[in-house]
Amino acid sequence: ICQKACIFIYNLKQTKMTTNQLNKEFDHLESIRSKVFEPVKLQLHVGIPGFNSPDTYGIYRKSGGECLGTVGNKFEPANLHRYMDFITKSICEDGSGFFDLNSLNFEEFFGGSKVSFTIESKDFEVESPVLGDVFKTKIHFITGFDGRTKNHLTWSTKRLTCKNGAKSWKTELDLSYKNTQGNVGKLELFTEE
Prior knowledge:
Distance between the termini: 24 Å
Helix content: 25-40%
Mean pLDDT: 78
Largest sheet: 6 strands, antiparallel
Number of helices: 4
Number of strands: 9
């Protein structure tokens, strides 16, 4: 409800969206939320009397299934629902209308051991001697549960690269930090900046 209220106020201020457009945005965010899973960290046990279990953990979907990765005791999996809330809140509070919440996307890689949220900006034309010089940006928020993938933020731009109309994406900013205890505060800072 808080997320919906944030989006509602944001859209009323910035774009004068109709009720149907707002409902479409709500429905899109709910469809993304339904794809997002909750990771849990479980200690791996030998299961044989007389053998001690190592300080090793497996990351699983809360619903069960294959192990997404094995990690040490300091690793903390990112709460993906909270991650999505931070991203949505940040876009709403930005208030510029630069990013389109309908472009928010969630993807899984390697069976869910790596995931990303991606959001794109709206297109805008740049004053340039070349006609059709359209500028677009994209932000990737990437995390993983394999013990090797860091929380990652990548800011990319897509721009005309030559006069024949060819365009390409270029990474402009790339930040990362490890998935260790206390990362929830870092997640929020990541999405706010």
